[in-house]
Amino acid sequence: MGAMVMESKIKPIYTREHIAQRLRELGAQISEHFEGREKPVVIGVLKGAIIFLADLVREIKSADPLQLEFVRLASYGSAMESSGVVQTPYLELPNLYKRHILVVEDIIDSGRTAKFFLDYLREQFDPASLKLCAFLDKPSRRVVDVQPDFTGFSIEDLFVVGYGLDFAEQFRELPYLGVYEE
Ligand code: IMP
Ligand code: MG
User: Catalytic residue numbers?
Assistant: First the structure.
């Protein structure tokens, strides 16, 4: 099946312009949060957060330069369901002891990935502050107790793709967010 045929199964819900507008607001909120905090660190969770993080950090104004770090986490399972087990294909971070940390995620679904990583950071680095920013939140899907401090959009229980999010490793590059229908 060609890419054009595949794309016809995606119903756009947020355009590129709509996302850009929302990111300006999020950037302002995060800039306010970072005010007066020294040497803030932004940690992106690959792969899903790459597009969101790249756009978001350019909307953040901080007196101190932002430090960017990345980890890669995965909850392998089928294309549309996570397995519930968080895998850590890449978890190399410098010493971030007592730093101000903002974790950037693509989406909080069951919450397992975010909970795992926040607990890990608390344990490893005892951060001066630790916040979670998610492009998307699906609160109706939550199985563990975790709440983003900054949310791009809160959505229904729909499977979405684009703007970093994939279905079986496809569609991450789409500049908009859409609902994927099989
Ligand atoms: P968790 O269930 O909160 O741990 O989310 C695990 C991961 O599942 C997210 O980081 C996404 O990579 C993926 N995921 C959850 N919902 C969606 C979706 O609607 N589209 C694409 N990926 C999703
Ligand atoms: Mg995924």
Answer: 109
